[in-house]
Amino acid sequence: MRIVYPRWKNALSILLVALTACSTPDHPTSAPVKDPSTGETYTPRRVVVADSLIRGRILDRNDSVLVDTRPQYLLKLPRRALDTLALGELLGWDSTTVRRRIQEALPYPGAYGVTVQLRLTRKEAERIRRDSSATVPQLTLTERYQRAYTTPAAAPVLGYRNTEAQAFFRQAKRTGRGRFYRLRNGGVEAYYNGLLSGHHGYLHPLIDKKGQQHGTWAKDTAFQQGQDLHLTIDTNLQAYAEKLLGNRRGYLVALDPRTGEILAYVSAPVYPAATITAPDQAGVRAELLEHESLPLLNRPAMLANPPGSVFKLVNAAIALQMHAITPGSAFRCDQSLVSCVHRHKPGKNLTAGLKYSCNPYFYQVMQSLIDCVPDSLAQDTVGARHANLAQWRRYARSFGLDSVLGVDLPREAPGFLPTPAYYDKARRTRRWTYRSIYSLSIGQGEINLTGLQMANMAAIIANRGWYYPPHLVRGIGENGPLARFTRKRHTLIDSANFEALVPGMVAVMQRGGTADASSLADVGITVAGKTGTVENDEGDDHAAFVGFAPANNPKIAVAVYLENAGFGATAAAPCAVMVMEKHLRGHIAPKRKRWEKRIQHRAKNGY
After folding, report:
1. Which positions fall inside the Penicillin-binding protein dimerisation domain (predicted)?
2. Residue 16: which pLDDT band, with cuts at 50, 70 and 90?
3. Spans of all domains in the chain
4. What is the pTM (predicted TM-score) of this model?
């Protein structure tokens, strides 16, 4: 056995020597400078303030360390045939564990002649050091400092350092899913890299021939140690939410509507946070890159989908603002306009329309908005429709839609809201009618929202018209979040019109509502929600849900989207309300334990 002792101390010594050399008079940085008043010639120098930079840690909202720079112990295996039984006895592993760990480290099944390194714990490394090499010869133990993850949860949030993910980038380029290399998402590690890394301090003196300083030739910069990041994520809630989604395809975003702080951020299928940078996870990464469910796609930020019936909330708020309807407006459930998937009582007002999620009701709500012809445009119905759709889009964009919200993650998608010009081009005529765009009324067609926008939409309604941009970092070092996350944004909708939506959202969770089975009334929590079932021509429908709780004093807003899962009421709503209950009460009531177990079982098996 060969042991390679830590090289970081030697590297640090070499670095300090190099920094000292930079500060000596023998290393001028540019041509000498002549003082015009005295004729004296000065040499400009750049002096590095010698100090060790330590990369900042990443902590959750309860100050539990999630990512830190720690020693990593790597065991390099010989390329020749290996006695796995002896290796297992040496490390205290069973034979199954040895084979699994080696298989996970191979870049593809059956790979031979490649170097395999296994991560060890400190205790396992000590067992290797005590070995006399007689048990398993030609083992090489190395120690290096690298980012260490203390939790498997929140992989898309924590991300990775690009310098530590080069093996993954090369691997991605060689696969059919090489686009993940272009869509790489380094999470907060990449987004806040400069603050986590810190920077050296530099002095810029002008030195005369005697070594004396005469002013400076550039502004000095102060040494800045790497800053810790304090996340908004609740690790326990995050881990719980990941168990509810597991190997399904979809997302869950939970945030505090009062602050915009993201409490849980799940992109499913989920995978352990260390997978991308771990040297012994090449086989796992290969599976992730080729998996049909695209687990490496950061769904809440990067993937925009039709929101389905949850978008009826936005349409209703805009229609109220534009005086196209009132809270008491009644419309028939006319199946000739658009089908309604279930039988229900008449939509005698907006509350009933939301409670039963009546498609014909909201078809007519949107029609009242688009086909409204003011007296000034009485002779130009085409112009009126264009103006009304443009106004609808203007109000909808004030929700943060059709634009990036500015979350502190790389590559956020903007989503999409159609314009009149878009339909002019798509329909090849300016004389399109409401009937050709009615799918907007039920959140289908050309509308696309991201998971962050869906959760923020729920937060806006919870706040009755305003929001703070969703964000993942609540503190940088001893300071707060980035300044833009502390500026309140207001929509163009009056608060009274948002207030008019809440009774219908509460009714959704009550007896006869589309999500009455997901009520939390038994534990004294009034949930306001809206279900959505998104039609999908390529398979089973997608399930959606947005909501907040408690309804009159919201502390959490949640958006859930599950691909090919069917009805929002039966698939998405249960996940959302259990995350709400977990956050507000700390545990799930016994009444829902069986329900919880069934959902987690489905999540584990990916259906």
Report:
1. 55-213
2. very low
3. 300-605
4. 0.88
